[in-house]
Structure formats: C-alpha cells, structure tokens
C-alpha cells in the first residue's frame, strides 16, 4: 500500500512538471511530438517539418507563430522518421538522436558539466548550463552562438577577436529546405565594419562603413523602440539590436532568396509586417555601376561617372562601362579635391584608416600621396574626424535620396579640371533660377518702356519733376532693350556728361 501511494505521488508530480517544461536534463528528454516552451511562452522548441517536406528537424519557433522557425539544429542532417529524441548525454552535451541512437546533431561543448540543464529562454536562446551555478550568465553552450538565418533581439552578429570565430547568418536553401543556402549576412571588419550580403563568395549588397553612429548609406528605417548597439573592444566586435520597452516582437533574417528583412509582429491579424527588405532598389546591388561610377535611382540611366571621370567607351549604352580619368594625372602640376555630398562611401578596398586625423590633415596627407584617390571622415559625430583614404578604384558608391544617411567624399581631380564643385543637380537649379530672374527683369523692363513710350507725350506737357540724370538712365535702359544702334549713342552721351 505504501509503495502504491509513493508511485501515485510520483505520477502526479511528473504530470505537474510536464506543462511547465522549459528544460531538459539527462533524465528528462523530449521526443518528436513533445516540445519545450519558454517560461513566458514566447518561444517553443521541438521537431518540425517545413512545408511540402516530410523530413524532421529540431527547431525553435515563436509560440504565437509556429511557422516562423528562428533556429534549426540539424540543418544539413534531417531525421527521416518521427523517432527523434533530444536529450543530454553523460559527457554533458545536448544531443539529437535518431531511432537507432545515432547522434544526428550535438551541442559539441568540451567543457564538462556536473549537473547539466538545457533551458529554452524567453529570448529564444537554448542554453546549456550547470544547475549548481544558478543565475550565472555563463553558459556552457548557447544556440545564440550558432545562428541560423535569423537574428533575434540580443543576438550578436560579428567576431570574437580572441578565437577568430565569426557569428553570421546563413539563409535556408529554399522555403522547404533549411540546409545551408547560398546567402550569408555578415559583418566585415576589414578596415571599418560594414555589413555584407554575400551570394556564395560574391558580394551582393553592402551597407556603408560604420561611422560611429550608424552604418552609412542605409535608408533610415522606422524605429519602433528599436535600439542598435555596436560593440568594439579588445575581445569582440559585434552588432546587436534590442527592442526596448518591449511590446514589439521583431526579428531580422536573410531569406532563401537573398533578401535581408526586418519583420514586426502585428498582434491584430496575427501577421508579420515586413518593415525593411533589402536590396530594395537597383542601386543597393553591390557594384551596380562600374568602378568610379555613382548610382542614383532617380536618374535615367541610373549610372554616371564621378566628376573627373568619363565612360571608357561612350558608345556602349547597354552595359555600364568602366569610368576612367578624363585626363591623365600629373601629380606634380597640382591637384585639388572636390566635395561630393550625400553619398554611400565606396567599399573599403585599398583603403587606409587613421581614426585620429582631422579632415584638414587627411586632405594634406592625401594630397601628398599620388596614389591617394579620395578621402573622407571615418567618424561623423562631433563635427567629424578620422581619415579614410582610398588608393584604388572607387567601388559601389550610391547617391542618396534622403541625404541624412549619406556622407561627404572628397575626390582628387586635376587643378585644371573643368568641373564644378556643385552637384549637377544643384547647378541645374541655379541655371534655371538665373534664367527665370533675368526673364522677369526683361519682362518688366519691356512693360516699363512700353508704358513710357505711350505716356511720353502726356509727360512732355507736364512739368518736369525728374532730374535729368534719372530721366536719362531710364532712357538708357529703354534704349538697351529696344535699340542696339542707339545704345552706343547713349553710352557716348553718358561719357560726355
Ligand atoms: C508546396 O507545394 C505546392 C504544390 O506543389 C506549391 O504550390 C507551393 O509553393 C509549395 N510551397 C513551398 C513553401 O514550397
Ligand atoms: C540514424 O543515423 C545514422 C547515421 O546518420 C544512419 O546510418 C541510420 O540509418 C539512421 N537510422 C534511422 C532509423 O534513420
Ligand atoms: C565539434 O567539435 C569538433 C572538435 O572540437 C569540431 O571539429 C567540429 O567542427 C565541431 N562541430 C560543430 C558543429 O561545432
Ligand atoms: C536544480 O537543482 C535544484 C536543487 O539543487 C533542484 O531543485 C532543481 O530541480 C534542479 N533543476 C533541474 C532542472 O534539474
Ligand atoms: C547568386 O549567384 C548565382 C550564381 O553565381 C546566380 O545564378 C544568382 O542569380 C545569384 N542570385 C542573386 C539573387 O543575385
Ligand atoms: C558593350 O558591352 C557588351 C557587353 O558587356 C560587350 O559585349 C560589347 O563588346 C561592348 N561594346 C563596346 C563597343 O564596347
Ligand atoms: C594618425 O595620424 C596622427 C596625426 O597625423 C599621427 O600622429 C599618428 O601616428 C597616425 N597613426 C597611424 C596609425 O598612422
Ligand atoms: C601612398 O599610399 C599608398 C597606398 O595607400 C601607400 O602604400 C604608400 O606607402 C603611400 N606613400 C607614402 C609616401 O605615404
């Protein structure tokens, strides 16, 4: 009777444990069909099959949106039946086993844990920790260190500088196949941080360099309590975002077709709203225009050469040609720089950086070195400082419609170069303004002179109020307008006065 009662209690205890489960231990595992749910029911972990597929994967998805899988364990190694089990084995690792107890996937940590517990957190992070170090933030392993195609708030995208390990996103192969696809989304830390979307090993899209405040050249997106953190210290360099004051559920991901997207959950309607999707226009594709060209979506054609450069072959309208110097450089005879505004700075290829120099120092250093083609501030805050110098071709420049996210670039031209420092657009504006104003002036002069001619007779009858000079200058204007030949005479008369 005593033992029966004991089993009875144990039975109820175990029932009570199941609904709240967000952890697995060496003795508590989950089978296909069972799931872990995080404490506040944000995320769920379990087995799933993508649409149109019967293969089984271990994944994490939103409890509210089970189709939105944010992490997959066995991406390239699916289980073919519904006999998979997730557990912790005695070396302290989380493992995914198939029917024949072969290891399909493992958390792969070498650190031995006394009392291992794996827990699904409300951030969407699956962590492996020691139950005795309760509350400690040090995990033996965490899924956030192995991103799939989705960057959740609090996840890092970047580099561990000590180990050289890079955290980046890799797209799914297709909508029904979570295996590693062609597109990656990663932080390049070559000279200054820039974010690239790669198609295989080819650069497909790029943000401008990190300028101390934001990644240049990225259109300003609506903020939605959204905070971007950029961390650079001696141990690591990464970018992360957080949705603070947090009613907003959001994620960013790289889709299987290569788009970087930011999605926000709409409680009403229970749907995801795509608030950012890039590339969003032709100019966002890397190197859309040739080297030393500028891409502007509001122009036709969208590509033109930088000032001081001309298309290499002018006939070829079909494909963007290389832009070459309009006249060869002669460093000794003197060069100068012209300022171009509102640009996404060129890719940091053949670029050097000194982050303490002022803009003036940067200019004189660039001027002294014949191989320096262009320079710009590296940091925009506090009026701007730091010096970026390009010595090769200038690649992937775009002109911005909203000038806020654009920066200034100074490019080297010959001192004798017949280029205006003004942007063509502004120059056109000024020409139009001048034409309009002179048109108005001529029109009123004409009116005045016609009025004067018609009233001349009446005027002669009236007493003369005007002094002679005023009258004569009026005459002069009218002669200028009406009569070229008498104009010379007027001049003469004037001289004689
Ligand atoms: C699933 O298959 C149907 C029919 O073949 C197709 O129309 C649909 O696009 C597929 N869905 C996905 C996500 O591949
Ligand atoms: C389990 O996995 C192993 C290794 O991948 C494989 O050889 C075996 O066929 C799998 N068993 C089942 C039932 O899928
Ligand atoms: C697991 O660890 C081994 C040895 O440390 C390493 O070679 C392998 O790449 C790791 N696998 C994963 C998925 O991290
Ligand atoms: C962790 O340890 C405490 C006591 O040390 C125990 O009550 C609790 O059940 C353990 N948690 C897990 C998930 O094993
Ligand atoms: C990615 O590269 C492949 C092969 O290089 C190409 O066929 C495909 O069109 C590219 N995709 C995109 C979106 O650029
Ligand atoms: C124009 O561009 C096409 C495609 O790149 C190329 O095949 C052709 O030779 C070019 N023609 C000229 C005149 O440069
Ligand atoms: C950067 O420029 C400053 C001022 O010209 C100079 O003192 C410093 O040595 C430079 N740093 C590097 C790494 O070149
Ligand atoms: C000029 O610039 C090139 C490329 O950045 C560099 O290799 C070279 O050392 C520089 N020369 C001088 C004199 O600073």
Would you spell out the secondary-structure blueprint of this structure?
Blueprint lengths: L1 H16 L5 E2 L5 E2 L4 E2 L5 E6 L8 E6 L6 E4 L12 E4 L5 E4 L5 E4 L9 E5 L5 E5 L10 E2 L7 E2 L5 E4 L4 E3 L1 E6 L2 E12 L5 E6 L2 E5 L19 E7 L3 E8 L6 E5 L5 E7 L4 E8 L14 E3 L7 E3 L3 E3 L11 E3 L9 E10 L6 E4 L4 H10 L5 E3 L10 E4 L6 E3 L7 E8 L9 H38 L6 H15 L1 H13 L1
Parallel strand pairs: 25-33
Antiparallel strand pairs: 1-10, 2-7, 3-4, 4-5, 5-6, 7-8, 8-9, 10-11, 11-12, 13-22, 14-15, 14-21, 16-17, 17-18, 18-19, 20-21, 22-23, 23-24, 25-26, 27-28, 29-33, 29-34, 30-32, 31-32, 31-34
Helix pairs in contact: 3-4, 4-5
Walk me through this protein's architecture.
This protein is an alpha+beta fold. The protein folds into four domains: 21-141, Bulb-type lectin domain (Agglutinin, subunit A, Orthogonal Prism), CATH 2.90.10.10; 147-280, Agglutinin, subunit A (Orthogonal Prism), CATH 2.90.10; 284-421, 3-Layer(bba) Sandwich (Hepatocyte Growth Factor), CATH 3.50.4.10; 431-496. 19% of the residues lie in helices and 33% in strands. The chain has helices at residues 2-17, 359-368, 424-461, 468-482, 484-496; strands at 23-24, 30-31, 36-37, 43-48, 57-62, 69-72, 85-88, 94-97, 103-106, 116-120, 126-130, 141-142, 150-151, 157-160, 165-167, 169-174, 177-188, 194-199, 202-206, 226-232, 236-243, 250-254, 260-266, 271-278, 293-295, 303-305, 309-311, 323-325, 335-344, 351-354, 374-376, 387-390, 397-399, 407-414. The strands form eight sheets. The chain has an eight-stranded mixed sheet with strand order 26-25-33-29-34-31-32-30, covered by helices on one side. A four-stranded antiparallel sheet has the order 1-10-11-12, with no helix packed on it. Strand 18 and strand 19 (202-206) form a beta hairpin. Helix 4 (468-482) packs antiparallel against helix 5 (484-496). The chain binds 2-acetamido-2-deoxy-beta-D-glucopyranose (8 copies). One 2-acetamido-2-deoxy-beta-D-glucopyranose (NAG) binds at residues 51-52, 175-176. The chain crosses the membrane at residues 430-451.
């Amino acid at each position: 009777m005593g033992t029966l009662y004991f089993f009875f209690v144990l039975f109820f205890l175990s029932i009570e444990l199941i609904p709240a489960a967000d952890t697995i231990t060496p003795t508590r595992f989950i089978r296909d069909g069972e799931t872990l749910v995080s404490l506040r029911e944000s995320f769920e972990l379990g087995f799933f099959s993508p649409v149109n597929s019967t293969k089984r994967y271990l994944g994490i998805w939103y409890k509210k949106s089970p189709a939105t899988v944010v992490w997959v364990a066995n991406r390239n190694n699916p289980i073919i039946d519904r006999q998979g089990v997730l557990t912790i084995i005695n070396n302290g690792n989380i493992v995914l086993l198939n029917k024949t107890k072969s290891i399909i996937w493992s958390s792969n940590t070498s650190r031995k844990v006394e009392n291992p517990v794996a827990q699904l957190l409300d951030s969407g992070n699956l962590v492996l920790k020691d139950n005795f170090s309760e509350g400690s933030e040090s995990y033996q392993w965490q899924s956030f260190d192995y991103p799939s195609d989705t960057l959740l708030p609090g996840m890092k995208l970047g580099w561990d500088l000590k180990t050289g390990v890079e955290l980046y996103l890799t797209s799914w192969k297709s909508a029904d196949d979570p295996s590693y696809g062609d597109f990656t989304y990663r932080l390049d830390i070559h000279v200054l941080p820039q974010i690239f979307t790669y198609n295989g090993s080819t650069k497909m899209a790029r943000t401008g360099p990190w300028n101390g405040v934001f990644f240049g050249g990225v259109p300003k997106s609506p903020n939605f309590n959204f905070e971007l953190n950029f961390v650079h210290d001696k141990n690591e360099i990464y970018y992360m975002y957080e949705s603070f004051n947090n009613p907003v559920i959001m994620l960013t991901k790289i889709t299987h077709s290569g788009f970087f997207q930011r999605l926000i959950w709409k409680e009403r309607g229970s749907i995801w709203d795509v608030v950012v999707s890039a590339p969003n226009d032709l100019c966002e594709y890397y190197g859309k225009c040739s080297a030393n060209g500028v891409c502007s979506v509001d122009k036709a054609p969208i590509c033109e050469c930088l000032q001081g450069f001309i298309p290499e072959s002018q006939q070829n309208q079909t494909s963007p040609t290389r832009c070459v110097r309009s006249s060869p450089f002669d460093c000794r005879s003197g060069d100068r720089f012209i300022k171009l505004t509102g640009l996404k700075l060129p890719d940091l290829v053949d670029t050097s950086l000194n982050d303490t120099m002022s803009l003036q120092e940067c200019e004189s250093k660039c001027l002294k070195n014949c191989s320096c083609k262009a320079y710009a501030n590296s940091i925009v805050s506090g009026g701007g400082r730091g010096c970026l110098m390009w010595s090769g071709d200038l690649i992937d420049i775009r002109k911005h419609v909203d000038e806020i996210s654009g920066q200034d670039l100074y490019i080297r031209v010959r001192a004798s170069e017949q280029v205006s420092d003004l942007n063509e657009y502004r120059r056109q504006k000024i020409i139009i303004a001048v034409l309009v104003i002179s048109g108005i002036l001529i029109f009123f002069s004409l009116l005045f002179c016609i009025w004067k001619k018609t009233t001349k007779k009446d005027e002669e009858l009236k007493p003369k109020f005007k002094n002679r000079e005023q009258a004569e200058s009026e005459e002069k204007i009218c002669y200028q307008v009406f009569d070229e030949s008498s104009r010379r005479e007027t001049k003469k008369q004037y001289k004689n006065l």
